[in-house]
Design brief:
With 259 residues, the chain is of the alpha/beta class. It folds into two domains: 20-112, no CATH class; 136-258, Cytidine Deaminase, domain 2 (3-Layer(aba) Sandwich), CATH 3.40.140. The chain has helices at residues 46-56, 97-101, 116-122, 136-147, 151-156, 180-193, 211-220, 233-242; strands spanning 2-4, 9-11, 20-28, 34-41, 65-70, 84-89, 160-165, 171-177, 202-205, 224-227, 245-251, 254-258. The strands form three sheets. A six-stranded mixed beta sheet has the order 8-7-9-10-11-12. A four-stranded mixed beta sheet has the order 4-3-6-5, covered by helices on one side. The protein has a two-stranded antiparallel ribbon with strand order 1-2. α8 links the parallel β10 (224-227) and β11 (245-251). The radius of gyration is 19 Å and the shape is flat.
């Protein structure tokens, strides 16, 4: 690559974040594995991504995931070997039509339209958070604590991050991904695959807050969302109805609480 400044042009090496597709398949009961979603993601923590996505979409309860494995179909090309994940669920499950018919997309997913909030709340697999939540003083410290653990961002500048934290501000798990939604699914999936509930006092985000991110937090029983950027109007409405504390524009010197 060549870096251009006002004074000169300088050839140099650079590191780019990897972006590849991941196909998530679901197997339940006697049914064969079926494609549920395809997302563009940063390779790594793929099993967590698949598990977290299923929980956050309301397709599986945390305890219903029996196994996650890379697909071993003989017809897969070598470059696809680690880009297809199969999740086996306990018992029977039936994928809603929107996941069977529209099974390919970006790293963003969710519902839209005038019934968005009602539909999002209907996918919840966890109760509203009833524990302690971070104070404003703790909230202002969280983005910097998250940034200290963003190793991929430091080397590439091309990824989002999400983290789960306790009310005291201690980060429990942090994940990075080219897709902000994937980063959230990964932190939730990390808890699920560790045999723990995905609910937590706080979800910390490195960017803005869209509707789908609040939807995922509501589905997993998150108590608060702390973001560096702004929320959208629909995100703020859903957070209010879901009982989630929503903080935006967060820095060491300032944060804004919505609702």
């Amino acid at each position: 690559m060549v870096e251009h400044t006002a004074e000169r042009e300088m050839p140099r090496e650079d590191r780019l974040i990897t972006e590849e597709p991941l196909e998530i398949r679901v197997r339940a009961g006697a049914l064969d594995a079926r494609r549920a979603w395809v997302t563009m993601r940063t390779p790594g923590h793929d099993f967590e991504l698949a598990a977290g996505w299923l929980v956050n979409e309301g397709l599986a309860a945390p305890g219903a995931i029996a196994q996650v494995a890379y697909c071993t179909d003989a017809d897969l090309a070598p470059e696809q070997e680690f880009n297809v994940v199969t999740v086996t669920l306990t018992g029977d499950a039936d994928l809603p039509h929107r996941h069977v018919a529209a099974s390919a997309g970006s790293s963003a997913c969710g519902v839209c339209g005038k019934d968005s909030i009602a539909e999002a709340l209907a996918t919840r697999t966890a109760k509203t958070w009833s524990g302690a939540r971070p104070s404003a003083d703790v909230v202002r410290r969280l983005p910097e604590a998250l940034r200290e653990r963003q190793t991929l961002f430091r080397t590439t500048g091309g990824v989002h991050a999400a983290g789960l934290a306790g009310a005291d501000g201690a980060l429990q798990v942090v994940r990075e991904d080219v897709g902000r939604h994937n980063a959230v699914d990964k932190v939730v999936g990390a808890r699920v695959l560790a045999g723990e509930q995905p609910s937590a006092a706080c979800l910390v985000l490195s960017g803005r807050v869209g509707f789908e991110l609040v939807q995922k937090a509501a589905a997993s029983g998150i108590g608060s969302i702390v973001a560096v950027g702004a929320p959208t109007s629909l995100a703020a409405r859903l957070a209010g109805e879901a009982g989630i504390d929503l903080w935006g524009f967060t820095s060491p010197g300032r944060t804004v609480r919505y609702g």
